[in-house]
Amino acid sequence: MAIAAVCFDAAGTLIRVRGSVGRQYAAVARRFGVEADADALDAGFPAAFRSAPPMAFAGAAADAVPALERALWRALVRRLAETAGLAPALDAVGFDRYFDQLYDHFATPAAWEVYPDVRPTLAAVRARGFRIGLVTNFDGRIVALLEALELRPWFDALTLSSRVGVAKPDARIFASAVSALGVPPAAALHVGDSPEEDVAGARAAGLAVVLLDRDGRHPGVPERVGSLEEVTALL
């Protein structure tokens, strides 16, 4: 079946943290007079992130989801602060004050940058008549963030794990995405940077897949491109 829609992952595919997570966390800590080791925060973040539960809250009322998202991130940041030996200093100035500013900061363009190949690719995909969707495990802040980064107008549908109750790689989030786009799974292509969450998940749901491997970390994946601009040539 011919492709009629293209779905994209968010973080790592369309946007990335400016500098690094550790630098951003340390910069917010400095607002409170706390000096943090950015390298230690960077080293500890992957494990803290992997140990967090999925950004999905099956059965939760829609109006309860923002608080659940925030609580998940608070627990993750607390775990990272303890691992990096930063918790006592943050507790002394008020950990929740620090977390509130950090959480708000990552909802702004100051914390993120758009990869250079994103806007040209979205424009090319749109010009060829394809519908465009977002499929992400990012929390609800992504909606306002896409607006602020001037990316939101490109998307016909946004599918967030916290809104549909299942997270990638669960095939059901991709089923929800193609339903929102009005196309069958076989008529959709999903592009993301994770072999597990994006490639395996989308394939299980019946979508065509492309792994975005900007740094050449996954040479064994056949459906692999080094930039988003290569995706257009595949359509």
Question: Explain this structure to me?
Answer:
The chain is an alpha/beta fold. It folds into 2 domains: 5-16 and 112-234, Rossmann fold; 18-111, Haloacid dehalogenase-like hydrolase (DNA polymerase, domain 1, Orthogonal Bundle), CATH 1.10.150.720. Helix content is 47%, strand content 14%. The chain has helices at 21-30, 38-51, 65-83, 87-93, 95-105, 118-127, 141-148, 161-164, 171-181, 195-204, 229-234; strands at 5-8, 15-17, 112-114, 131-136, 157-160, 188-192, 208-212, 224-225. It has a 6-stranded parallel sheet with strand order 5-4-1-6-7-8, with helices on both faces. Helix 7 links the parallel strand 4 (131-136) and strand 5 (157-160). The radius of gyration is 18 Å and the shape is globular.
Key words describing this protein structure:
6-stranded parallel β-sheet, 2 domains, 235 residues, alpha/beta, Rossmann fold, DNA polymerase, domain 1
- Backbone CA Rg: 18 Å
Structural class: alpha/beta
Strand order of the largest sheet: 5-4-1-6-7-8
How far apart lie the N and C ends? 12 Å
Q: Count up the domains.
A: 2
**Largest sheet data:** 6 strands, parallel
Q: CATH class of the largest domain, anyone? A: Alpha Beta
Helical content (DSSP H or I, runs of 4+): 40-55%
